[in-house]
């Protein structure tokens, strides 16, 4: 007999790692039911006990047995109904052959309407089939109650015209396996993968990277002012590195996240790049009528080539600035500093400076101390 996946009780607070299926043996099903009942009765939701479950075993003639479970106020998400419920697991020759789920305080008409609204797509006649058309359910009165009965499809129990239609749909399901798998992979991709934002917003990274270069440059210039002290000696150091920066935002995230692949760059300078935070715009894609907010990303290459240091200079208005102690400054760099100090009073000053580029953008800065007493 074919197996049928059965959800015991469709409620938001149950999550089972195993399922009861038609065709399973008695010992397997009875063990699962005991686990479900004990687990339910021990758990709480929002501080409240869940509606209690109980069960009993009934024996019939000719090797038949039934396990019955009972629970009040069961919430069925698919049907949008709440009802007291009796579920009967019927065994024949130690095999689960039928499951009957009775909603004891719902009318038959209300149950039929709710079931039709949710499960009508795979309906043939009065039977509602599983997606593969190998199992079915029907809604009817059983033991006085409106009941959903689950069984495996056996063509010997149906007229030829009926089972011919079922066989046709089974074949269609098998023939469409590749398409289903492709659609499933697409949905999984839309939920989990990251998508290049340039494929959705034209030239996004091209437009934003120059802005990021400016912001990162500001971080390095601010760091110059805070991390280097003025010195009586001329000092120099270099900051060199190549980084591939991965900016990304998961669906629903407000600010960007960042990963680095940097060569030869110290951690403290990598942290300066991390300080730049911004919002990557949302991107969306519609698939089979459903709109997906996507995880988005883009990449930025950053080449850092900077020289930092300190110098001592003697400045006199209208005359050439004298670099008393300096560290390998070029004439152009000396001239650049001289322009910065030209409006200062004549005297001796400490300087800390930075020259170089982030990518092809200048990242030059100089900080000048107060005039020193000579």
Polypeptide structure, described:
This protein is an alpha+beta fold. The protein has two domains: 5-160, no CATH class; 194-368, no CATH class. Helix content is 28%, strand content 39%. The protein is built from seven helices and 22 strands. The strands form five sheets. Strands 5-6-7-8-12-11-10-9 form an eight-stranded antiparallel beta sheet, sandwiched between helices. Strands 13, 14, 15, 18, 19, 20, 21 and 22 form an eight-stranded mixed beta sheet that branches. A two-stranded antiparallel sheet has the order 1-2. A hairpin with a 2-residue loop joins strand 11 and strand 12. It is elongated.
Strand content: 35-45%
The helix/strand class is alpha+beta
**Any idea what the shape is?**
elongated
The tally of beta strands, per DSSP, is: 22
What strand order characterises the main sheet? 5-6-7-8-12-11-10-9
Q: How many helix segments? A: 7
Q: What's the story with the biggest beta sheet? A: 8 strands, antiparallel
Quaternary class: single chain
SSE succession: EEHEEEEEEHEEEEHHEHEEHEEEEHEEE
The whole-angstrom Rg is 37 Å
């Amino acid at each position: 007999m074919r197996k049928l996946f059965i959800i015991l009780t469709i409620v938001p607070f149950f999550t089972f790692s195993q399922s009861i299926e038609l065709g399973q043996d008695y010992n397997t099903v009875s063990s699962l039911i005991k686990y479900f009942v004990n687990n339910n009765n021990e758990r709480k939701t929002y501080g409240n006990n869940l509606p209690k479950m109980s069960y009993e075993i009934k024996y019939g003639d000719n090797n038949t047995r039934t396990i019955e479970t009972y629970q009040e106020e069961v919430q069925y998400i698919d049907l949008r109904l709440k009802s007291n419920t009796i579920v009967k697991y019927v065994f024949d020759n130690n095999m689960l052959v039928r499951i009957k789920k009775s909603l004891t305080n719902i009318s038959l008409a209300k149950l039929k309407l709710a079931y039709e609204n949710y499960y009508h797509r795979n309906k043939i006649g009065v039977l509602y089939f599983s997606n593969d058309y190998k199992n079915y359910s029907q809604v009817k009165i059983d033991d006085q109650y409106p009941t959903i009965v689950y069984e495996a499809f056996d063509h010997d129990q149906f007229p030829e015209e009926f089972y011919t239609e079922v066989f046709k749909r089974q074949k269609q399901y098998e023939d469409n396996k590749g398409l289903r798998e492709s659609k499933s992979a697409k949905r999984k991709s839309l939920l989990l993968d990251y998508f290049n934002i340039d494929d959705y917003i034209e030239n996004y990274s091209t437009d934003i990277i120059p802005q990021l270069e400016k912001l990162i440059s500001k971080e390095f210039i601010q760091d110059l002012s805070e991390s280097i002290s003025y010195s009586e000696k001329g000092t120099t150091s270099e900051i060199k590195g190549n980084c591939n920066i991965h900016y990304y935002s998961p669906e629903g995230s407000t600010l960007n996240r960042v990963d680095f692949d940097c060569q030869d760059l110290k951690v403290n300078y990598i942290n300066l790049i991390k300080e730049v935070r911004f919002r990557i715009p949302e991107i969306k894609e519609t698939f089979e009528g459903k709109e997906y907010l996507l995880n988005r990303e883009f990449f930025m290459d950053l080449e850092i080539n900077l020289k930092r240091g300190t110098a001592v200079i003697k400045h006199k208005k209208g005359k050439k600035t004298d670099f008393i102690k300096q560290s390998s400054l070029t004439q152009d760099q000396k001239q650049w500093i001289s322009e910065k100090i030209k409006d200062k009073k004549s005297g001796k000053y400490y300087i800390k400076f930075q020259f170089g580029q982030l990518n092809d953008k200048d990242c030059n800065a100089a900080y000048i101390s107060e005039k020193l007493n000579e």
